[in-house]
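Side project, low priority. Logging it here so it doesn't get lost.
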Amino acid sequence: MFITFEGIDGSGKSTQLQLLAETLREAGKKVLLTREPGGSALAENLRKVLLESNVSAQAELLLFGAARAQHVAEVIKPALADGAIVLSDRFADSSLAYQGGGLNLPTDFIQAMNQFACADLQPELTFLLDIDPLAGNKRQQLNHQKPDTIESRGLGFLERVRQAYLQIALRDSQRVIIIDASRPAESVQCDIHNALQQRGVL
């Protein structure tokens, strides 16, 4: 099973991914924890470029696509074939939200790129951890997290990203579950567990 976590930084994705991985492993499941951009050696190198350098909007989108294609081919598909539950911190929805919603790049092109890069692979379930950008920023500051190049584009950019994510969830409500991430981590974790129990994963 392929499960993804989406949302702006400060929404608690990393925390919830780790908690879910621990729960699934305790239940005897084989789990692969991965991230985007990243996962493979090539994608990790591209991650450094994307999160630490200033590149054009078009180059940014295409670099994400290249990282995703290698991630799918080298990491995700082999793990799924081996019977693992794959948990990914971001996937194709992030390009629609960040480069589409945030940077106003054409969504038709992004969807075509994702389809090509993912070789038709789609998550079976996506948790959208939704939080107001200002609250997300404050949480990052409390945790002494420095925003990367993309997340440093300001609250207006992050609000466009957030709204794009919510539109994705409305269009694909069977796959995407919106979770209020402004609450304590325990409450968010409980909602995630309930959703997985309803689907027979836990």
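Brief comment: The beta strands are 2-6, 31-35, 85-89, 125-130, 176-180.
Revisit when time allows.
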